[in-house]
Design goal:
With 411 residues, the chain is of the alpha/beta class. It has 14 helices and twelve strands. The protein has helices at 2-77, 85-109, 124-134, 136-140, 162-178, 214-219, 227-232, 241-250, 281-286, 303-315, 326-335, 352-360, 380-386, 398-410; strands at 120-123, 145-150, 157-160, 184-195, 198-207, 254-260, 264-274, 295-299, 319-323, 340-344, 368-372, 390-393. It has a five-stranded mixed beta sheet. A five-stranded parallel beta sheet has the order 9-8-10-11-12, sandwiched between helices. Helix 1 packs across helix 10 and helix 12 (352-360) packs parallel to helix 13. The protein is extended, with a radius of gyration of 28 Å.
Amino acid sequence: MLYFIIGTLLLLTILFLCYKIFELNSKLNHNKKELSVLQKKAEKKLQKSQNFVSSLSHELRTPLYGIMALTNLLVKEHPELQENKNLKSLKFSGDYLLNLINNVLHVNFTNSGEILPEKKVFDLSEITENIVHSFSYATENSDNILHFEFDADIPKALKGNSAILSQILMNLISNALRFTKNGNIFFTVNLISQKGNINNISFRVKHDGNEVTKEDGISIYQEFINIEKVKKSYLGTGLNATIVKQLAKSINGEVVFQNNFNAGSEYAFVIDLEVPETKSDKEINSATDDNSKQKVLVVDDNKLNLLVADKILSKENFDCTTIDNGFDAIKLAKENNYNIILMDINMPKLNGIGTTKKIREFDTTTPIIALTAVDVTQLNRQIISAGLNDYILKPYDKNLLLEMIKKHVLN
């Protein structure tokens, strides 16, 4: 009898434990489902937020491209206006606004790991000089002096991501200017070492600002900083150190920050850049030979963008045709033999991706370059699947456009 009672109690205990385990598992499964739903909602919300920022960036880049391109064309056509303060102010504002838009984009994508750098050939001395010139207006309107030194041993042509490199340098210089009053900012570019075609290059930004305090040292890269400090500053936006480091990491570089509260601060950015294989001058010049004008079709729904592209290419002796929609672009591509097609991506009715797909049905060889104000991290797969050969991010530099054309026309 005793054994029966004990057995019964053990059985009841086991059944009770089994019920509790089942109940606990049910709750865990329910919680997992709720968590999964919440996670999906959060991901959807994040995606909507990223899409909104990207769309906003496109809307900002498009008119900004027109402003910057027309300003540069105005200076080229009227050299006497190069020292005009109003034009300098306009150029600086355009360059700085573009940098801020790029910062917002990379804040938007930094956590999703979608920064996908592209390597292109560029002139480092020209890029750094342009950056310094873009800040000349800021220093003219303050008591600060921006000093610039460039190592003559650095090769003229290098391969890397000039857009992200420029973005990092503009952030470092702008922060140095913001935290300097009646002082000096030293921007130096040096060749550290060469191994084969790899050049290890350092970019140093040092300032002796007398307003750098311990608090400033901590907050110098805060994404959200005290609004009163912003109001006192000519360049009023800071950037979180993690973002700068993320940008540097995406192009295999490294940023080091050293702070001396009595003597200012120094930032060092170090990166390896390749020396590309170069074509002969004869090959390059053949792309723009008077006897063989290259025929270019430019497709863009923005009339101002078409005007700028036509002016740039016509001055470089290209035979340029412009059209403002994808349907007419397809017809022109069927009826003419173009050496290259420059294709805007974001167009109404039929966008650049769809237009390219239609052209590729009857023409698989003509290089088609995407012109886009949308961050390409979202478009990589679509660009490849559509048959586009390359891309240029608006607003683009004239030299970058010409190099891109030469690269694909000569291949």
